[in-house]
């Protein structure tokens, strides 16, 4: 127990698998013997309860508004794995609440080995702040252009707020004609943490409101999440340097900074950060194989 490693599960595109990854990585880490809290920070589109079988009476909203202690909003999902749901009222999230997030996460740190932050899509203070609040940022993307472009944007944002990007997990891998995950990670200039294959069991598990790692631990997707969790535990390179007293790398004072960055990012380039993703439009990701179109530029439904 203790000195939790705070990981923001992030990626600017919606529907790419962030919540699925946060929950299942949480269960898989618990199976690997770790204690885990998954904190839902998808404020406008809170939906973690749809993935799990529980109806929270207390949520992060109550915690941030001071009407409930954090412990009352933590729900056991599996042995050693708790979830803190954000609650839909958080659509009316404001700056004061964002500031209150830091001490909440800080209070979880000594109680868990891992604290996973399930973040929202888009570019806003709510998405930027966790990038700084966390020790490490785990990018989630599908192997498709729009998702990777937004993943790149999230990496840039993380760097702008001095967040540490640990690498990328590709979800729904192995579909279409995307280049291999290793190549996509190289394009993103980050480490490949894992690839979770497209797996219809994910939807079946979701229909039963269960994490796939509990519903069918031997399924391809669950196996992939377990491998990622095991590698996180074994290669535990978390920096337990001298900043123990400080929460992550950021503080409340950075909030205004996050707002300014969100504004400038949105203004600078609505389709991508300062042209940083331009190579995607070229042949930067082709494999060199004449039969390989490199990329399927067709958007999937729901992406
Ligand atoms: N490996 C996978 N195979 C098939 N479907 C998946 C996989 N991972 C996620 N999905 C589906 O993708 C959809 C979006 O996932 P979600 O985790 O809600 O994304 P986000 O949190 O990024 O918006 C969900 O319906 C989920 O069931
Ligand atoms: Mg989500």
How would you sum up this structure, described in words?
It is built from 12 helices and 8 strands. With 303 residues, the chain is of the alpha/beta class. It has a single domain, classed as P-loop containing nucleotide triphosphate hydrolases (Rossmann fold), CATH 3.40.50.300. The chain has an 8-stranded mixed β-sheet with strand order 3-4-2-5-1-6-7-8, with helices on both faces. Strand 7, helix 7 and strand 8 form a beta-alpha-beta unit. The longest helix has 16 residues. It is globular, with a radius of gyration of 18 Å. Adenosine-5'-diphosphate binds next to helix 1, strand 7 and helix 8.
What's the SSE blueprint?
Blueprint: E1 5-10, H1 18-31, E2 36-41, H2 48-51, H3 60-64, E3 75-78, E4 81-84, H4 95-108, E5 114-119, H5 125-133, E6 136-141, H6 145-160, E7 165-173, H7 181-187, E8 192-197, H8 200-207, H9 212-215, H10 220-234, H11 255-268, H12 278-281
The structure holds adenosine-5'-diphosphate and magnesium ion.
Residues 14-20, 121, 171-172, 196, 198-199, 202-203, 206, 221 line the site of adenosine-5'-diphosphate.
């Amino acid at each position: 127990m203790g000195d939790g490693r705070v990981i923001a599960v992030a990626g600017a595109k919606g529907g790419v698998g962030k919540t699925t990854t946060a929950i299942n990585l949480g269960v898989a880490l618990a199976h690997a013997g770790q204690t885990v809290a998954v904190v839902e920070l998808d404020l406008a589109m809170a939906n973690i309860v749809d993935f799990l079988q529980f109806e929270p009476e207390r949520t992060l909203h109550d915690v941030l508004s001071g009407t409930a202690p954090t412990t009352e909003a933590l729900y056991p999902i599996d042995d050693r794995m708790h979830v803190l749901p954000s609650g839909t009222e958080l659509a009316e999230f404001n700056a004061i609440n964002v500031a209150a997030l830091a001490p909440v996460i800080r209070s979880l740190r000594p109680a868990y080995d891992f604290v996973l932050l399930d973040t929202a899509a888009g570019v806003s203070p709510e998405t930027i702040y966790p990038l700084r609040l966390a020790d490490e940022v785990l990018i989630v993307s599908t192997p498709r252009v729009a998702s990777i472009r937004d993943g790149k944007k999230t990496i840039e944002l993380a760097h702008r707020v001095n967040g540490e990007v640990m690498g990328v997990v590709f979800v729904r891998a192995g579909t279409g004609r995307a280049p291999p995950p290793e190549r996509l990670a190289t394009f993103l200039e980050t480490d490949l943490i894992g690839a979770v294959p497209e797996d219809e069991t994910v939807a079946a598990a979701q229909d039963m409101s269960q994490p796939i790692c509990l519903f069918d631990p031997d399924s391809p997707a669950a196996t992939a999440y377990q491998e990622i969790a095991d590698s996180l535990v074994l290669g535990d390179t978390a920096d337990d340097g001298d900043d123990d007293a400080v929460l992550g790398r950021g503080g409340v004072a950075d909030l205004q900074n996050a707002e300014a960055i969100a504004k400038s990012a949105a203004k600078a380039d609505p389709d991508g950060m300062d042209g940083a993703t331009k190579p995607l439009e070229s042949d930067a990701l082709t494999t060199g194989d004449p039969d390989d179109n490199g990329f399927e530029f067709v958007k999937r439904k729901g992406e």
